[in-house]
Amino acid sequence: MTLELKATIAERHLDVSLSVGPAETLAVMGPNGAGKSTLVQIVAGLLKPDAGQATLGARTLFRTGPAPLWLPPHARGVGLLAQDPLLFPHLSVLDNVAFGPRSKGLGRAESSAVARHWLGEVDALELAARRPAQLSGGQAQRVALARALATDPELLLLDEPMAALDINSAPFLRSLLKRVLAGRRAIIVTHHVLDALMLADRIIVMDRGRIVESGPTAAVLAHPRSSFAASLAGLNVLTGSVTGTSVQTADAGLVAGRLTGGFAGAGTPADGGTEGLAAFPPSAVSVFLAPPQGSPRNCFPVAVTELEPHGDHIRVRAGRLAADISPAAMADLGLEPGSAVFFVVKAAEVAIYPA
User: What domain of life does the native source organism fall in (predicted)?
Assistant: First the structure.
C-alpha cells in the first residue's frame, strides 16, 4: 500500500509528484517558502490543489478532472502532528487522545483503553488526568503524537513537530519518534538534518514549489546536488557553467575540481554550457593574508564576515563561503570581521555535480 501524489497549485508555484512506501519515512526539506507545508496540507485534506490526484493504497484521497473527488480530512486515514499541539483545552489529556477513537465509533471504555495504550507508548501515561494548560511544550507534543497515533492512521504527517520545542525537549521527542515510526508510513517536514538522518529512510529537497533532489538520506547528504542540501551537509557550494573539469561562476571566477558520477563518463571533461555545482567542505579551505606562492588553482579573495566557534575549530565565514581553521591559526592571522583574506582550495577537494 503506497501513497502516490501529484499536485499543482499555480498561485503557489507548486508542482510536485512523489510516492511513499508502506513502511517508509520520507523527510521533506528545503528553504522557507519552498512549499513543504503546502504539500502536507494537500495530503491532509486542508488545501485543494488546482490539478492532480492522490491515492493511499486502494483509497483515492482526491482527484481533479472530469470526475473530481475530494475526501474530507477525517476520511483519509491520515494523522497530522504540527508545530502547535492543538490540544482541546477543555478536555483532559486522556480525553484528548481518546477523541479520535470515539469519533471513529468506539465506545468510551474502548476509546479510553486505546488512549492509555498510546499515552504509554509516548511515555505520557502519568499525564492522563491533566489539562493541556498544565503541560510543558514537550509534554503537550508527546500527547499530540499519541492523539495522532490513536486513530491508527495509514499515513502520519509531521510538520516540523520539534520546531517549537526547547533544546532539552527536542532530543527526547526525536528518540521517541524513531521508535514509534519504525515500520510505519510517514512524511516529516523538518529543517534539521539530524531529524532526516535519524528518522527518514529517504529525503526530498524542495525549492520554489519543485522537488529538486531525492534519494536515500545518507546518499543525498553525502553527494548533494542542490545548494540547500549542500548547506545541510555543511559544504560550500558555488554554481555556474561547467566547462572541462571546472565551473565558471559569476562571483568567484573559475573553480577547478573533479567531476562526479552525476556526469556521463565521470572524469571526462564536460561539454561547455552544462549547469553545475562546485562543492567542497570548509575543512578543505586554507586561509591566507596574501596569495600563496605556486599559483593554486582555486584562490578566492574574500572579506571575513563572521567568526564562530565550531567544535574544536573556528569557522571563518566570508559571505557564502566558509573555512575551518584552528584557534591558533586564527590568532596568527589576526582575523576579525572585515579582514581581507584569501580562501585557497585544492582542485582535488572540489567535487563538481550537474545542477
Answer: Bacteria
Contact 278, 249 (CB under 8 A): yes
CA-to-CA separations, 305 to 17, 189, 281, 340, in angstroms, rounded: 39, 31, 18, 10
For residue 269, the 8-state DSSP code is P
pTM of the model: 0.72
Q: Within 10 Å of residue 33's Cβ, how many Cβ atoms?
A: 14
Q: Do 27 and 204 form a contact (C-beta atoms < 8 A)?
A: yes
Distances (CA, A) of 70 to 8, 36, 51, 155, 273: 15, 21, 12, 17, 45
Grid cell digits, residue 346:
585544492
- Report the C-alpha gap between 318 and 306 in whole angstroms: 7
Pairing of strands 202-207, 186-189: unpaired
Cα dihedral sign, 128-132-133-136? positive
What is the amino acid identity at position 328? A
Cell 529512510 found at = 201
Nine-digit cell string for 278: 562546485
Rounded to whole angstroms, how far apart are CA atoms 104 and 75?
Answer: 10
Residue 73 has a pLDDT of: 93
- Per-10-residue mean pLDDT, the chain, length 355: 94 96 94 93 96 95 95 93 91 96 92 96 94 94 93 93 76 84 93 84 94 88 77 80 88 85 50 75 93 83 92 89 92 94 93 74
Which candidate, 309, 348, 351, places its Cα nearest to that of 326? 309
- Cα separation, 274 vs 354, whole angstroms: 7
Q: Which domains does the chain have, with CATH numbers?
A: 3-222 (3.40.50.300), 234-355 (2.40.50.100)
User: Whole-angstrom Cα distance, residue 158 to residue 163?
Assistant: 11
Beta bridge partners of 316: 307, 323
pLDDT at 261: 56
**Distance, first Cα to last Cα, the chain:** 33
